[in-house]
Design goal:
Number of domains: 2
Number of helices: 2
Helix content: 25-40%
Order of helices and strands: HEEEEEH
Shape: rod-shaped
Radius of gyration: 23 Å
Structural class: alpha+beta
Number of strands: 5
Strand order of the largest sheet: 1-2-3
Strand content: 25-35%
Amino acid sequence: MLSFLVRLILFAIAISVIRSVVSFVQRAFSGSRTPPRAVRGSPGAGTTMLQQDPVCGTYVAVDSSLKRVVNGRVLHFCSPECRDKYSA
């Protein structure tokens, strides 16, 4: 009886490990590494567009980002430090 319980527990652990590995591999090879461009907040709050900071890669809300126009393209920065690094 004890060996049956040990085998059952080991089987459950093995299944859990296999599921974790499969999930990791699926995420690694899905090819979708960018978050969605819009984030929905609370109901009725509307939609917030996100843009990636070209210096640090942080996604910032368009409404609250620091903006700079370069070659006719609007760039969004998360902080004055990132904006100044991009200028340098």
